[in-house]
Automatic annotation (TrEMBL):
<dbReference type="InterPro" id="IPR005146">
    <property type="entry name" value="B3/B4_tRNA-bd"/>
</dbReference>
<keyword id="KW-0597">Phosphoprotein</keyword>
<feature type="region of interest" description="Disordered">
    <location>
        <begin position="499"/>
        <end position="529"/>
    </location>
</feature>
<dbReference type="GO" id="GO:0006432">
    <property type="term" value="P:phenylalanyl-tRNA aminoacylation"/>
</dbReference>
<dbReference type="InterPro" id="IPR003591">
    <property type="entry name" value="Leu-rich_rpt_typical-subtyp"/>
</dbReference>
<dbReference type="GO" id="GO:0004826">
    <property type="term" value="F:phenylalanine-tRNA ligase activity"/>
</dbReference>
<dbReference type="InterPro" id="IPR001611">
    <property type="entry name" value="Leu-rich_rpt"/>
</dbReference>
<dbReference type="GO" id="GO:0003723">
    <property type="term" value="F:RNA binding"/>
</dbReference>
<keyword id="KW-0175">Coiled coil</keyword>
<feature type="coiled-coil region">
    <location>
        <begin position="392"/>
        <end position="419"/>
    </location>
</feature>
<feature type="region of interest" description="Disordered">
    <location>
        <begin position="292"/>
        <end position="322"/>
    </location>
</feature>
<dbReference type="InterPro" id="IPR020825">
    <property type="entry name" value="Phe-tRNA_synthase-like_B3/B4"/>
</dbReference>
<feature type="domain" description="B3/B4 tRNA-binding">
    <location>
        <begin position="357"/>
        <end position="494"/>
    </location>
</feature>
<keyword id="KW-0677">Repeat</keyword>
<dbReference type="InterPro" id="IPR032675">
    <property type="entry name" value="LRR_dom_sf"/>
</dbReference>
<keyword id="KW-0433">Leucine-rich repeat</keyword>
<dbReference type="InterPro" id="IPR045060">
    <property type="entry name" value="Phe-tRNA-ligase_IIc_bsu"/>
</dbReference>
Length: 569
C-alpha cells in the first residue's frame, strides 16, 4: 500500500487507543550568550552525540561573528564521528583545534562554503577520517602547512573518499598519495588543473584507488604511468584539453568505465569512439594499435605481446586470480541516494513525548527488491493496528489481546517462553504511553517494537519498502541493526535475481507481514535487473521544530568489511 505523503511522524500513543490520529556576572552572561548562539553544541554535548550537522540561514551570521571560523567550542566534542557544515558563505577556514579536538572523526563534510584560497592551519592529522568532502569552495592550492595534512607520517592514513570538486585548484599537492595512501575515490571535477602530479601514478602510490574523476578541468596530458593504478575501475576525464590517450591505459587490469568525451583527440577515429562506444571497445582499440598518436601499426606484435604479459602480471600482483578475489558478477551492489538528489524525500518527525519510550529511531527507503521468486518473501519476513491481519483496535486492548495470545500459545506448545512478536511485549511493561508511527493521513502504520499495520502489508509484488528501527538503548544499535537488515536484503535480492527463471510465483500464503510497502516511483537506478544495485534512500529524522536529529544512511553507515559488498555513494 502507498504511504500518501512525504512526512511521517513518530509520536506517543495514549494507552487508550491507537488514534489517527564585567565581573562574574559578566562572565556568566558571556557564556550564556555563546551557549545561546550555538544551541546545537549544547545538545550534542548533553546527549553525547556522534553526529552533528550545522546548516541553515542563521549559520552564516554566527560564523561571521566567530571570525569566519567554526566556534572553538565545537572542537571540545571528542565523541563526534560525523561533522557536516554546509552552505555557509562566511566560513573561510575551519579554524585551529580541529585535529586535536576531534580525534575520532570518521566523516568531515565542509561543502558549499567559502574555504580558500588554502586551509590554514592544515586539516590533519586526522587518524580515523575516512570521508572528506571539501566540494564547492574557493580552494586554489593546498601547499604544505595549508593543505590536507602531513605526508610523513601520513596525516590521513585511513581516508577512503576525497571530494575536491567545484573549487579553483590549479594543482594538486605533490604528496597527496603519501598523505592519504588508502584513498579509493578521488573527485577533482570542475577545477583548473592542467596536469596530475607525477607522484600520483608512481608504482604502489595509491594501490586502492578505484575511482578517479577530473572532468571539466584543463588537463593537457595523461601520463602513461596511469597504468600503475592497479585497482582503477572508473576514470572520467571528460571536457578537458587532452589530445592523446596513452596506450598504457589499456593495461589497467580492472578498468571498467572510461569517459573522454569533450576532448579533441588527434586520432579522429578514437575521438568518435569515445563519444559513442563502450569502454571495452575503446580499450580493445588501444590494445590493437590505436593510441590517439597514430603509430599503432608500427609497433608490431612483439610490443603487443609484451603489453599482454604486463597486464597478466598486474592481475596476479593485484590479487585478481580466480582464488583471490570475488568475481565482479557476484558482488552485492548498494547505491545510496542522498537527500539532495531525491525528489521523493521522506522525513520523520519525532514528538518529544516519545523520548521516554523509544527515543532512538532510524529509517531508510529501499527500492528494487524482488520478492516474487520462490520463498524470497518468507526469507525476508519472520513476523510482523488495523494491526497486521486484525481489525482496528485500541492500543490498550491490542496489548492485552497479544498477552492472552502469548500465554495461550505457550501453553499449547508446552514451552517455557513465548515466541514470535509476543516475545517483545515486555518492552512496554509499565509504560504510560505507547510509541507509534503515523503517516501523512494520520493512520497508525507501526506500533514499535511490536507490529506493523495492515495498511502497509508487504506482498510478493512489493519492490519498494520503508524500513524503520527503534531502540530504547542507543542510536548506534538502531544503525547496526539497519546495516545488517539491508545487507540481508541485498543478499536475498541477489539470490532471487540469479534464480528468477527457476523460481515459482505460486505461493499466495507468503503474502504475510513485516515492514512497510511503498508505491514504486521513478527512482534513478531502481529498475530490477541483474546488474542494478538496490537503491537505499536517505531518511531524515527531525524534531518538532524541524531540527535534524539523524540522517540514515550517513557516510559512516553501511561500512561493510565484507569483500562481496560494494556501496556506491
Amino acid at each position: 500500500m502507498a504511504l500518501s505523503g512525504p512526512d511521517r511522524k513518530l509520536c506517543r500513543m495514549p494507552r487508550k487507543r491507537t488514534g489517527r490520529g564585567c565581573g562574574s556576572g559578566g562572565a556568566m552572561a558571556a557564556a550564556a550568550a555563546v551557549s545561546e548562539a550555538w544551541p546545537e553544541l549544547d545538545l550534542a554535548e548533553r546527549e553525547r552525540r556522534r553526529e552533528l550537522l550545522l546548516t541553515g540561514p542563521g549559520l552564516e551570521e554566527r560564523v561571521r561573528a566567530a571570525g569566519g571560523r567554526l566556534p572553538p567550542r565545537l572542537f571540545t566534542l571528542p565523541l563526534l564521528h560525523y561533522l557536516e557544515v554546509s552552505g555557509c558563505g562566511s566560513l573561510r577556514e575551519p579554524g585551529p583545534g580541529l585535529a586535536q579536538g576531534l580525534p575520532q572523526l570518521h566523516s568531515l563534510v565542509l561543502r558549499r562554503n567559502a574555504l580558500g584560497p588554502g586551509l590554514s592551519p592544515e586539516l590533519g592529522p586526522l587518524p580515523a577520517l575516512r570521508v572528506l568532502d571539501l566540494s564547492g569552495n574557493a580552494l586554489e592550492a593546498l601547499p604544505p602547512g595549508q593543505g590536507l595534512g602531513p605526508a610523513e607520517p601520513p596525516g590521513l592514513p585511513q581516508l577512503q573518499s576525497l571530494n575536491l570538486s567545484g573549487n579553483r585548484l590549479r594543482e594538486l599537492p605533490a604528496d597527496l598519495a603519501r598523505c592519504a595512501p588508502r584513498l579509493q575515490t578521488l573527485n577533482l571535477t570542475g577545477n583548473r588543473l592542467d596536469a596530475f602530479p607525477a607522484a600520483l601514478f608512481l608504482p604502489g602510490a595509491l594501490p586502492l584507488l578505484s575511482e578517479l574523476a577530473a572532468a571539466d578541468n584543463c588537463l593537457r596530458e595523461l601520463s602513461p604511468d596511469i597504468a600503475h593504478l592497479a585497482s582503477l575501475k572508473t576514470l572520467d576525464l571528460s571536457n578537458n584539453q587532452l589530445s592523446e590517450i596513452p596506450a598504457e591505459l589499456a593495461d589497467c587490469p580492472k578498468l571498467k568505465d572510461i569517459n573522454f568525451r569533450g576532448n579533441r583527440l588527434r586520432d579522429k577515429r578514437l575521438e568518435k569512439m569515445v563519444s559513442g562506444c563502450q569502454t571495452r571497445s575503446i580499450l580493445e582499440y588501444l590494445r590493437a594499435g590505436g593510441r590517439g598518436r597514430c603509430r599503432g601499426k608500427a609497433e608490431g606484435p612483439d610490443k603487443e605481446e609484451g603489453r599482454r604479459k604486463r597486464r597478466e602480471r598486474k592481475k596476479r600482483e593485484s590479487g585478481e586470480g580466480a582464488d583471490a578475489v570475488v568475481d565482479e558478477a557476484s558482488r552485492l551492489l548498494l547505491r545510496v541516494l542522498h537527500v539532495s538528489e531525491n525528489p521523493f524525500l521522506l522525513t520523520v518527525r519525532a514528538s518529544p513525548e516519545v523520548r521516554d519510550v523509544r527515543p532512538f529511531f532510524v529509517g531508510a527507503v529501499v527500492r528494487g527488491m524482488d520478492l516474487r521468486p520462490g520463498n524470497a518473501l518468507k526469507r525476508f519476513l519472520s513476523c510482523q493496528i488495523i494491526p497486521l491481519g486484525r481489525r482496528e483496535v485500541k492500543a490498550k486492548d491490542l496489548v492485552r489481546q497479544l498477552q492472552l495470545e502469548a500465554e495461550e500459545h505457550r501453553k499449547q506448545k508446552k514451552r517455557q517462553n513465548v515466541s514470535g512478536l509476543h516475545r517483545y511485549l515486555h518492552l512496554l511493561d509499565g509504560k504510560e504511553h505507547y510509541p507509534c508511527l503515523v503517516d501523512a493521513d494520520g493512520d497508525v502504520i507501526s506500533f514499535p517494537p511490536i507490529t506493523n499495520s495492515e495498511k502497509t502489508k508487504i506482498k510478493k509484488t512489493t519492490s519498494d519498502l520503508f524500513l524503520e528501527v527503534t531502540s530504547a538503548a542507543s542510536l548506534q544499535i538502531c544503525k547496526d541493526i539497519m546495516d545488517a537488515l539491508i545487507l540481508k536484503m541485498a543478499e536475498i535480492n541477489k539470490y532471487t535475481l540469479e534464480n528468477r527463471e527457476e523460481s515459482s510465483l505460486s505461493d499466495p500464503e507468503s503474502d504475510a507481514v513485516c515492514g512497510h510497502g511503498l508505491d514504486p516511483k521513478a527512482t534513478p537506478g531502481a529498475e530490477v535487473t541483474g546488474s542494478t544495485p538496490l537503491v537505499v534512500e536517505q531518511v531524515r529524522v527531525v524534531d518538532e521544530e524541524g531540527h535534524l536529529k539523524v540522517v540514515y544512511p550517513s557516510k559512516m553507515d553501511l561500512d561493510f568489511a565484507a569483500a562481496h559488498v560494494t556501496v556506491l555513494r
